[in-house]
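=== RUN LOG ===
request id: a7f3
mode: sequence -> structure
chains: 1
length: 135
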Amino acid sequence: MLAQFTAALPHFLAYFGAALALAVVFLLLYSRFTPHREFELIGQGNVAAATQLGGTFLGFAVPMALVIGNAVSIPDMLLWGAVAAAVQLLVFVAISRILFKAISDRIAEGCMASGLFVGSMGLGVGILQAACMVP
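=== RESULT ===
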């Protein structure tokens, strides 16, 4: 058992490290992509921004978890992870440009309904996306 663990540990560390790096890149890109600054707002105690970013991150992480379990290599995982990130960006674009044009301002103002809506849509789309990514 110990030999199996020792043999698998580098594989785990490589995938986990790559997934964490991709997650950090996703969060930084997403927070730069939106008109409001999530991390700054969260630092000020804005629960709407925290809810929005948290739900969006879960919407990215759920498909990533399934991709990691089915990837044939780290580059394969990173490619599908980029798809998951792009979908989350598209969710925000669809909501902020088509459904509710002032939603970013509402989140910045601390409107929980807006933050919860964007975060929940991101999570829901991420769950659907994850189901589609499993061969």
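=== NOTES ===
The chain has six helices and no strands.
The two ends are 30 Å apart (CA to CA).
=== END ===
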